[in-house]
Amino acid sequence: MHDDEDGPDRRHRRPEGVTDRTVEALGALSKALETTERARGHLYSFHQLTGGADLELDRAVRLLREAGHPEWADEVEAEILGRNVIPGHWTFQIVEAYNDTYYRPFQQLERSAVSELAEGRDHLYEAEMKESRRTAGHPHHTARPPAPEA
User: Fold this and answer.
1) Could you tell me which residues belong to the region Disordered (predicted)?
2) DSSP string, the chain
């Protein structure tokens, strides 16, 4: 499959006895975690966008008062400013609950599976895909990054 000079580094080589199906399963598990990472990023976007909107309400309240609409300013202030986004929760609490209840347990499980089933070697599925798709000897298809200069 590769020689020591032109193949993946040791940490991206399949350990002895690890089956194709195990590599595929760990790849699927990692892909699912990566998707969860993206979802978590969107959750942080939701948190920041909602917080920014709430802070902009301060300006809206001030401008409504300046425009002579104190009743609308009072309504916005009382009904929307600082309101929970779901019962009992501001967005930071949703982020915390997601992290504690779903994200961190998923992340820990994935790490444990890779440690136990593949000696902690990450991205075996991708490394093997790269190896099968690259053109050996081509300067833009190298197996590894260049070694740092001394």
Assistant:
1) 130-150
2) ---TTTS--GGGSPPTT--HHHHHHHHHHHHHHHHHHHHHHHHHHHHHHHHHHHHHHHHHHHHHHHTT-HHHHHHHHHHTTT--SBTTB-HHHHHHHHIIIIIHHHHHHHHHHHHHHHTT---HHHHHHHHHHS-TT-TTS-SSPPPPP-
